[in-house]
Amino acid sequence: MLKITDIQPQKHDPSRLNVYLNGEFAFGIARVVAPWLKVGQEISTETMAELIEKDQREKAYQRALNYLSYRVRSEEEVRRNLRKHEVPDQVIEDTLDKLRDKALVDDQHFAEQWVENRSAFHPRGKRALAAELRQKGLARQTIDQALEDVDEHQMAQKVVDKKWNRVRDLDWPDFRKKLFGYLSRRGFHYGVCREVVQQAWDEREKTS
């Protein structure tokens, strides 16, 4: 058995403790993992190993919570972040299970929020939105469902509105080239680009 000879809060993080066994530093641990530890107590090497494992899981969970505090994330984004900090794969998956249970990660909700935000502030075609969501690690079914109600013509019209002052006075070849380029670079399909550009030109001709 090993005897706890001292317990000290860590200098830079008082929520964590340094535990000394038989007069020597043995391990650091979060207070919440083992609030029952006290000086003079004896623990086995098995108990110490269990505490270190529980602490590893708690650190991973707290790291994930901190990562999620800045904005909504996909499961894969959380997974990548934890891997970057060398968290073991099984601990990562257990952490994600815990986050799912608490509704702190939800890929479908993430995808829908992403599409909604893009629609409002940075309009994109379905092709571009799908590519962005794939980069976030989302499953194809999740992406397809999030994009199901996207009106590409409406989104393309928002791009036209944003760029209108730059193209309104151009002749047809330059008008078409510039506006078509704006739309295609934002992931709109050829047919949508062609129709929206033609509609914009026809409206301009009516009012000129």
Task: Name the average pLDDT.
Answer: 94
**CATH top level class name of the largest domain:** Mainly Alpha
What structural class is derived from the secondary structure elements?
alpha+beta
Strand order of the largest sheet: 3-2-1-4
Total strands: the figure is 4
CATH architecture of the largest domain: Orthogonal Bundle
Shape: rod-shaped
Helix/strand order: EEEEHHHHHHHHH
Helix percentage range: 55-70%
Q: Using only CA atoms, what is the Rg?
A: 27 Å
Give your account of this protein's structure:
The protein is α+β, with helices and mostly antiparallel strands and 208 residues long. It folds into 3 domains: 100 residues, Arc Repressor Mutant, subunit A (Orthogonal Bundle), CATH 1.10.10.10; 41 residues; 56 residues. It is 62% helix and 11% strand. It is built from 9 helices and 4 strands, in the order ββββααααααααα. The chain has a 4-stranded antiparallel β-sheet, with helices on one face. A hairpin with a 2-residue loop joins strand 2 and strand 3. The longest helix is centred in the N-terminal third of the chain and has 24 residues. The radius of gyration is 27 Å and the shape is rod-shaped. The termini are far apart.
Quick structural overview:
The chain is α+β, with helices and mostly antiparallel strands. It contains 9 helices and 4 strands; from the N terminus they run ββββααααααααα.
Task: Break the fold down into its secondary structure elements and pairings.
Blueprint: E1 2-9, E2 16-21, E3 24-30, E4 42-43, H1 45-68, H2 75-84, H3 89-101, H4 107-121, H5 126-135, H6 140-147, H7 152-167, H8 172-185, H9 190-207
Antiparallel strand pairs: 1-2, 1-4, 2-3
Helix pairs in contact: 1-3, 2-3, 4-6, 5-6, 7-8, 7-9, 8-9
